[in-house]
């Protein structure tokens, strides 16, 4: 058996795959392709456990949801440890004995209605969280939270020029994603369906066009409602997915986080393995008449 066939026949090692198939964005390496949001959890302790169960190493944090960086006081007026959102995000998770994944923060500009507001939010978050990464979100309509493509493009160009590593949340618009790529964003984050809807990949055909033509990582964000949606996203070629509502509002967020972890890994592995082509005609897996001779 030659070396190439020996390599193909080697036993699959999940830990080795996790290490060798890392995703790089803006010079930072991410071993997990499952990113998590931090909103909508009933308790911060549940969010903390879900992050660990998902074995993610990138979580988004909205600037407007961060508590003041001053310690609170108990009933006696004594200062106590600040129980802010950031205090519940673990510094690292341990998917294997060999790999220690640092949990990185991705501040987002959620709540910004214009490019000017988004740039200001990004600059504030860089000072507070000490990171150049920013998830750019601009949605002037508070009802449907649809991203504004014009303001997003303007803000993305301004933030790139200011040295930010920009990951813009946008419609599944192939033309817009290419324009954003041209101004220097580090990745694009097209929505699978309206944010918080859990409708899955309702924009699948457009997502596939974006994935096929993108020279930067494509992270499908918003609308993914189940682990099977996440697996499908990875099967069609997404580089990662960002999940928030589907985990945070599940009956058991921690178990759901684990389910998404395995779904993302399965979808990614299937994509790398080469998914068999589909057809409408039956085709036998073994010759039908050989036994007669």
What report would you give on this structure?
The chain has one domain (24-273): Alpha-Beta Barrel (TIM Barrel). The protein is globular. The chain has helices at 3-9, 14-20, 44-54, 115-129, 149-161, 174-183, 204-213, 227-235, 245-248, 253-273; strands at residues 23-25, 28-30, 34-36, 58-62, 92-93, 101-102, 104-108, 133-136, 165-170, 189-190, 219-221, 240-243. Helix 3 runs parallel beside helix 10, helix 5 runs parallel beside helix 6 and helix 6 (174-183) packs parallel to helix 7 (204-213). The chain has 293 residues and is α/β, with parallel strands linked by helices. It is 37% helix and 14% strand. The two termini are 31 Å apart. The model is unreliable at 1-7 and 68-73 (pLDDT under 50). The strands form five sheets. It has a three-stranded parallel beta sheet with strand order 3-12-11.
Q: Helix count, per DSSP?
A: 10
Structural class: alpha/beta
The share of residues in extended strands comes to: 5-15%
* CATH architecture annotation name: Alpha-Beta Barrel
Question: What's the β-strand tally?
Answer: 12
**What fold name stands as the CATH topology?**
TIM Barrel
CATH homologous superfamily name?
Aldolase class I
Catalytic activity: [ThiS sulfur-carrier protein]-C-terminal-Gly-aminoethanethioate + 2-iminoacetate + 1-deoxy-D-xylulose 5-phosphate = [ThiS sulfur-carrier protein]-C-terminal Gly-Gly + 2-[(2R,5Z)-2-carboxy-4-methylthiazol-5(2H)-ylidene]ethyl phosphate + 2 H2O + H(+)
Function: Catalyzes the rearrangement of 1-deoxy-D-xylulose 5-phosphate (DXP) to produce the thiazole phosphate moiety of thiamine. Sulfur is provided by the thiocarboxylate moiety of the carrier protein ThiS. In vitro, sulfur can be provided by H(2)S.
Subunit structure: Homotetramer. Forms heterodimers with either ThiH or ThiS.
Protein name: Thiazole synthase
């Amino acid at each position: 058996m030659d070396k190439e066939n020996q390599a193909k026949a080697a036993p699959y090692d999940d830990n080795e795959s996790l290490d060798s198939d890392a995703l790089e964005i803006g010079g930072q390496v991410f071993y997990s392709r499952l990113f998590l949001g931090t909103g909508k959890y009933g308790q911060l302790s549940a969010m903390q456990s879900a992050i660990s169960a998902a074995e993610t190493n990138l979580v988004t944090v909205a600037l407007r949801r961060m508590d003041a960086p001053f310690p609170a006081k108990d009933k006696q007026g004594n200062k106590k440890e600040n129980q802010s959102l950031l205090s519940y995000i673990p510094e690292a998770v341990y998917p294997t004995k060999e790999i220690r994944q640092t949990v990185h923060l991705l501040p987002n500009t959620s709540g910004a209605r214009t490019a000017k507001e988004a740039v200001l939010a990004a600059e504030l978050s860089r000072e507070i969280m000490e990171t150049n990464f920013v998830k750019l979100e601009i949605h002037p309509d508070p009802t449907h939270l649809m991203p504004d493509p014009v303001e997003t493009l303007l803000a993305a160009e301004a933030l790139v020029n200011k040295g930010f590593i920009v990951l813009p949340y946008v419609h599944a618009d192939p033309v817009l994603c290419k324009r954003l790529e041209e101004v220097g964003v580090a990745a694009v984050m097209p929505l699978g369906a309206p944010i918080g809807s859990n409708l899955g990949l309702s924009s699948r055909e457009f997502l596939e066009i974006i994935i096929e033509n993108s020279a930067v990582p494509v992270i499908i964000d918003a609308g993914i409602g189940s682990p099977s949606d996440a697996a499908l996203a990875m099967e069609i070629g997404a580089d990662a997915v960002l999940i928030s509502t589907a985990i945070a509002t599940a009956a058991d967020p921690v178990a759901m986080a684990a389910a998404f972890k395995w779904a993302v890994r399965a979808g990614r592995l299937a994509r790398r393995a080469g998914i068999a082509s589909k057809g409408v005609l039956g085709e036998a897996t073994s010759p039908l008449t050989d036994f007669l001779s």
